[in-house]
Amino acid sequence: MTKRKEAEPEIRRGGAARAVGAMLPDVGRASFRRFGFVQSSVVSRWPEIVGERYADVSTPESIRFPRGLRENGVLTLVTDGAHAPMMQHVAPAIMDRVNRFFGYPAVARVQFRQAAAVAPPAPRRAAPSLRPIPVELGDSLRAVADPELRACLASLAGALAATSGPPKLGGKP
After folding, report:
1. Residue 102 belongs to a domain with what CATH number?
2. Quick one: which of 12, 135, 155, 173 has the most CB atoms within 10 Å?
3. Which residues lie below 8 Å from residue 37, measured CB to CB, with a gap of 6+?
């Protein structure tokens, strides 16, 4: 007595196409956690955390926490051979910057391993939009002091100016 399934309506799978770069944090999260990085952004934002000078000669390898805790960990850095003694002198400053990045005392000690430090590739900037920003929005953007925020707001304003009509929600035509 096998019942034949009735034809089910086709279910549309969700949303618009996503850029591969937007999915990478989800894909890399498991491997980063394996090496003790609660946030993968520690690796990707290393130059911002410690500065270009130290980021050129060091790379974070892992953060090991005591069992059951997420604080007072040991940060292992891969440093270029000759730079390891210099990095040992600035280890307290590196701990302070990493802990400031996390917002709590995540690192209590820095350990060094001498090897060739591989710097992450420089982030690529998106091409500027060719559409001009509406004049009325341009005046209000001049008051924004932060250049990165101003560029982001200008990009958003340009994208909004390029659309017509109300936004379409839910992915249905």
Report:
1. 3.30.300
2. 155
3. 43, 60, 62, 63
Instruction: Tell me, yes or no, whether 30 and 107 share the same domain.
Output: yes
Residue 39 one-letter amino acid: Q
Determine if the pTM surpasses 0.70.
Answer: no
Same domain, 136 and 158: yes
Identify whether 79 is part of a domain.
yes
Give the C-alpha distances (Å, rounded to integers) separating 89 from 66, 92, 110, 131, 141: 25, 8, 11, 50, 43
pLDDT, tens only, 122-169:
555 555 555 556 666 666 777 777 878 888 887 777 777 777 777 666
Pairing of strands 58-64, 107-114: unpaired
Torsion of CA 75, 55, 120, 98, to 10 degrees: 40
Residue numbers of the chain with a pLDDT score lower than 50 = none
Residue range of the domain that includes 48? 25-114
Report the alpha-carbon distance of residue 46 to residue 168 in Å, rounded: 38
